Amino acid sequence: IHECDPVDEIIAGFGGQPGNSVESWRPLERWDEPDLAGGTRPLFRAWCPDPVAGMDNAYAAAAAMFMPIDALVWPAAMQAAGRLDGGPSLFTPTVEITARFADTAHRTSWHLGESVVDHMSTKSVAGTVRVWSADGVHGATGHSLNLMIG
User: Fold this and answer.
1) What total number of domains does the chain contain?
2) I need a surface site. Which of 34, 52, 88, 113 has the fewest CB within 10 A?
3) Nearest Cα to 148, choosing from 61, 95, 69, 90?
């Protein structure tokens, strides 16, 4: 996480401010320059806001961290297939998903999701997503098995 651009700087580059000005998660890292996890597998990163920041509810915090776990296997699969910058899109409906929450008490207004493809065939993709707070505290790890259509 220390190698990622801070979300405040990324948003400022678009003329916005973190918080209410950004209503939905969106990938903000450059897709055409993937980072490498351990130098062997592409790592897809995306910032997403915590829509329940400020609420004192562990279940709502877990749900907010679950969203990138569910959403980020698709762009990681697109990256692994070389289709992020063009080509036909893949559809990756979720078949099975699990999550383990390390810390639902530590809250920041943004999460960083880091997704890697663990296995990919012509019919399915399996990925791991790690979710971090904006200040680098590990919040959750999840695994998703998805169909590959397209």
Assistant:
1) 1
2) 88
3) 90
